[in-house]
């Protein structure tokens, strides 16, 4: 980038004499600014698991069908963001809503630094819109919570699971999924007895694969629990209670009476068509600004 700056300085001198060079110069300046911005963001992704794959779970909040549909909208948003950035998605578990969308869905995002980028999406997401399920066309508010965990590799000695501390149950998968899924005990529920953490996986037809996915999710949840315990111990030693922002409402998506998406942590907002683009996966501005806050807090 230093070499590019030297080249641009030479171009500036030439452009002062030849105005036809100015459009190319402006384009090169924009490109360099983008490269510098991306390089700055990469310096923020130096946490232990920032380079890991991400396990994302979206849970519907209060609101019945509305909230389930909101979960499906968020899943679509993240799917499109992943596609734009070259990440692959594997659905690990899902529970369809009674009428539309999902009550919850868990998926694995495969790719370098997937967790590093997506960890800033942790929290509650709020939607305001005219309900497509309301015959009276009233405005509804829906909530969904997003949880992002790093995928913990099997050779990570920090998190070890004792098989004797697990209770593993199998059951018949619920919801849509074909005759085989619904007629065999392919779904798996794992209870970690010491902590009481329960994970389920029922998306795959193979009980073996559902068990493997459930163990991945459990390992990541145990890592999250361990990090939370470390945080509380640090607060105790420091003798002060810091406000935790990431578990609360982080972003509002308003589609009526105007269109706006606003991040309550960073103040970044998008209006009109740009707001609709957010739901089509244009999340980079929100993620980058949130990463800067995480860096400052650390």
Q: Mind sketching the topology for me?
A:
Layout (H helix, E strand, L loop, with lengths): L1 H16 L4 H23 L9 E7 L4 H20 L3 E9 L5 E9 L3 H5 L4 E8 L8 E12 L15 E6 L7 H5 L3 E6 L4 E5 L5 H32 L10 E6 L5 E4 L5 E3 L1 H6 L5 H14 L1
- The number of helices is 8
How does the helix and strand content classify structurally?
Answer: alpha+beta
Quick one: biggest sheet?
Answer: 8 strands, mixed
- Alpha carbon gap, first and last residue: 27 Å
> What number of structural domains do the residues give?
3
Low-pLDDT parts are 177-181, 240-247
Helix content: 40-55%
What's the CATH class label of the largest domain?
A: Alpha Beta
What name is given to the CATH topology of the largest domain? Alpha-Beta Plaits
Mean pLDDT: 87
Strand content: 25-35%
In short:
By secondary structure, this protein is of the alpha+beta class.
Can you characterise this structure?
With 298 residues, the chain is α+β, with helices and mostly antiparallel strands. It folds into 3 domains: 2-44; 54-155 and 244-297, 2-Layer Sandwich (Alpha-Beta Plaits), CATH 3.30.70.1660; 163-236, Double Stranded RNA Binding Domain. It has helices spanning 2-17, 22-44, 65-84, 114-118, 179-183, 207-238, 273-278, 284-297; strands at residues 54-60, 88-96, 102-110, 123-130, 139-150, 166-171, 187-192, 197-201, 249-254, 260-263, 269-271. The protein has an 8-stranded mixed β-sheet with strand order 2-3-1-5-4-9-10-11, sandwiched between helices. The protein has a 3-stranded antiparallel β-sheet with strand order 6-7-8, with helices on one face. Strand 4 (123-130) and strand 5 (139-150) form a beta hairpin. Helix 1 runs antiparallel to helix 2 (22-44). The longest helix has 32 residues, at 207-238. The radius of gyration is 23 Å and the shape is globular. The relative contact order is 0.13.
